[in-house]
Design goal:
It contains 27 helices and 22 strands. An 8-stranded parallel β-sheet has the order 1-12-11-10-9-8-6-2. A 5-stranded parallel β-sheet has the order 17-19-20-21-22. Strands 13-16-18 form a 3-stranded mixed β-sheet.
């Protein structure tokens, strides 16, 4: 991002910030537990940033991004940078304020958390109202820019753009308390926020920044004319201050592309992995030959090697549009693991097709050298194809529906009290459990001892739930390291990594499996544990599975066939597992789809096709059961109002849905949907029974009986109480028993109180 005459400028839009060995996780969790003070946390963060700079500097890039590190979330960092922190989160120190907003504390609930576009990264939703007063706080951006400048690196500060910040925000509690009478939307604050961005950019320019990257991923979604005008107005004010490099990264800019060009931005990054149509659009627009345009041809979302021949062809097309072409990742490399070299157990036939963050940097720089060899990714070996799986799928009915309507099924299913209580599935994964799994994996614990240890934990979890008075129990999932990886390790077509960690939110890191070939089940995966748990109690115990869409969303998935085909293969394997659970006597089977909203395309034009294949895959997995068997599902941390039709089309008997951080907003969506259909007395198109979460498990705070009672009262006021279940927002694996026991006790008591009020 300099003014050199190099034919192609190499850069990257962002980089993993957790550290090669998850140093970020260990540092922030040590701080939360009191083992690291603020100064020590700052030092640990600086060391991680130094490692990031080492990687970027050694790659041979022409410019590098700074400001892409975060202690928890980059959207929260932006809220800090413009001083848009809610009064309830402000504490004596900046660090305490930051983590109060992220995680909540005894005095305040945290910010709502939801998915970052169609990824498994979760961001914190800023709260903006007419009362919000913005103020420039450039300290973080200046510090990280200075760290790169001290190394004589050509650094480019990165900020979330003003339009995306507001479009990703929600109206504040003050607005909600007034009933949103004036229809306030945060984007209405664009003029005030732009003035603060003018101050932020000026501070960076005065510190020596020539180019500044403003990320505007919200412009990759459908936008109204008023929103586009707000973008145009903001960027006309900002472009005179610095050379602006505007990125999207999650699909095509579409109608936003000419708006950005007309506003005078000096650089634009195109996502040519998911938004190739922007390149053709660019060729038809009046573009200044001096505009820097970067081709995002290296996939920042997946781990497959780049087809360098195809990428080079895109760069040739770009040369015809601008005299200042660049090459980059399609988006930040936040979504991929750090280093493929750490993987020594993967088969060579797979390794040669992969690239993690460090390898992607080399792919980017290789594209600037016209003499560098250009390779295509090798085609998949024939043995990765399973004709038996493909034949079975071809023989399934097109609709894959359950053959008995919900009303008839419900009359046959197990009877429960009003407002039945349950949990989502997992119970705390203690240090002792993690050690037992690790010892077993390393051969330090024999199978018999491992199974005995897991069975002891299952028995303890069943006893805990019976003591608490929960109505429908779970076995606690002590044997599962992760809700996707556990199944990937038992299905063909998957590989798992040793150190392929990516950030999901805050300190939460996951190792997405690699789905590279046709998928099949080799034997029962969960039946033993569920059956053992059921043998310990007279109460119903749910069988627990992860759904096909979520397994895809939380894996690195093959890109040589449509996602719909891959989803059907995973669903067929789950269908076999569901059949075995039912045959073993399991009367309630939960197939979780927390990622149902996550994979929804950003553009409305793709919604119908996605809903069709995603819901069909779920029904393939679940439609083979008898009417007496209840099918549950679970969804969390997304804007579910956008996929109510899809939730309905799952035809699950019960759907538990995250609701506590969003203050039961989903219930208003359900109510509006029912009023729209004129069918208030019955479930709307298959959203039969619903369990709105009354406890936010991603915060360490213990919600009171009064809080949960208030949430349940909202629920029964919005939805027929006969359709309401009582449960937490999500599984409990990340929480401690010191938090779980009192929270579940309060939840059961809240259900008892509201049952009494209904009676």
């Amino acid at each position: 991002m300099n003014d050199s005459k190099k034919p192609v400028h190499a850069t990257v839009l962002g980089y993993p910030r957790i550290g090669a060995n998850r140093e970020l996780k260990r540092a922030v969790e040590a701080h939360w537990s009191g083992r690291l003070d603020t100064a020590e946390l700052d030092a640990a963060a600086a060391a991680i940033r130094s490692e990031m700079l080492d990687d970027l500097a050694s790659a041979g890039l022409d410019s590098i991004p700074t400001g892409v590190f975060s202690l928890y979330d980059h959207v929260l960092d932006t809220a800090v940078a413009v001083d848009a922190i809610a009064p309830r989160h402000r504490r004596e120190t900046e660090t305490a304020t930051y983590f109060a907003a992220a995680r909540g504390d005894a005095d305040a609930v945290p910010l709502e958390m939801t998915k970052w576009f169609d990824t498994n990264y979760h961001y914190l939703v800023p709260e903006i109202g007419p009362e919000t007063v913005f103020r420039a706080r450039p300290e973080k951006a200046l510090t990280e820019f200075a760290e790169a400048r001290e190394r004589n690196l050509n650094a480019r500060p990165v900020l979330l753009g003003p339009a995306s910040f507001l479009l990703l925000s929600k109206a504040s509690d003050e607005v909600a308390a007034e009933g949103d009478a004036n229809g306030f939307a945060p984007i209405e604050k664009i003029d005030e926020l732009t003035a603060v961005y003018e101050a932020l950019l000026t501070a960076l320019v005065e510190a020596g920044a020539e180019w500044i990257q403003l990320d505007e991923p919200a412009l990759c979604a459908d936008r109204t004319e008023a929103e586009l005008e707000a973008v145009r107005s903001a960027y006309r004010r900002l472009t005179p201050i610095a050379k602006l490099f505007v990125t999207g990264g999650y699909g095509p800019f579409g109608e936003s592309l000419p708006v950005l060009l007309e506003s005078g931005v000096q650089g634009i990054a195109l996502d040519l992995v998911r938004g190739r149509e922007d390149l053709a659009a660019l060729e038809s627009l009046d573009v200044s030959r001096e505009t820097f345009i970067s081709a995002g041809v290296v996939d920042g979302r997946n781990i497959w090697r780049t087809d360098l021949l195809a990428a080079a062809a895109d760069l040739e097309r770009l040369h015809r549009v601008t005299d200042r072409p660049g090459v980059s990742s399609s988006c930040s490399l936040l979504h991929v693991p750090v280093d493929l070299d750490a993987e020594t157990e993967l088969p060579s036939s797979l390794i040669e097709r992969l690239a993690f963050a460090r390898q992607k940097l080399r792919e980017i720089t290789s594209l600037t050298d016209a003499d560098a060899p250009r390779h295509q990714r090798p085609t998949a070996p024939g043995e990765w194809r399973d004709e038996t799986v493909r034949s079975r799928l071809a023989a399934l009915p097109e609709d894959a529906d359950r053959r008995v309507d919900y009303a008839e099924r419900a009359a046959l299913q197990v009877g429960l009290p009003p407002l039945p209580t349950t949990t989502i599935g997992s119970f705390p994964q203690t240090a002792e459990l993690r050690k037992a799994r690790a010892d077993h994996r390393r051969g330090l614990m024999i199978d018999a001892d491992y199974h005995a240890r897991m069975k002891n934990e299952v028995a303890a979890v069943i006893a805990e739930q019976e003591k608490l008075g929960i109505d429908v129990l779970v076995h606690g999932e002590p044997e599962r390291n992760d809700m996707v990886q556990y199944f990937a390790e038992q299905l063909t077509g998957f590989a798992t990594t040793a150190a392929g960690w990516v950030q999901s939110y805050g300190s939460r890191c996951v190792r997405p499996p690699i789905l590279y070939a046709d998928v099949a089940r080799t034997g029962p995966m969960t039946v033993e544990w569920t059956s053992y748990a059921q043998s310990l109690t007279d109460k119903p115990v749910k069988g627990m599975l992860t759904g096909p869409v979520t397994i895809l969303a939380w894996s690195f998935v093959r890109d040589d066939q449509p996602l719909a085909d891959t989803a059907d293969q995973v669903a067929l394997a789950l269908r076999d597992e569901v059949a075995d659970l039912e045959a073993a006597g399991t009367g309630i089977i939960q197939v979780d789809e927390p990622a149902l909203r996550e994979l929804l395309p950003l553009r409305r034009e793709g919604h119908d096709a996605y809903r069709a294949w995603a819901t069909r895959a779920f029904r393939i997995a679940t439609s083979g059961v008898r009417p007496e068997t209840a099918v549950h599902t679970h969804l969390c941390y997304s804007e579910f109002g956008e996929v109510l039709d899809a939730i309905a089309d799952l035809d699950a008997d019960v759907a538990s849905i995250e609701a506590s951080r969003s203050k039961m907003e989903i219930l208003a969506d359900l109510d509006r949907a029912e009023r729209r259909t004129g069918d208030e007395g019955n479930a709307v198109r298959g959203v039969h029974q619903v369990g709105p979460g009354v406890w936010d498990i991603h915060s360490p705070r213990v919600p009171s009986v009064e809080e949960m009672t208030a949430s349940l009262r909202l629920a029964v006021a919005a939805v027929d109480p006969k359709r309401i279940w009582v449960n937490p927002d999500c599984g409990l694996k990340t929480r401690r028993y010191e938090e779980v026991r009192p929270s579940l006790a309060n939840m059961v008591e809240a259900a008892r109180i509201v049952r009494g009020e209904l009676a």
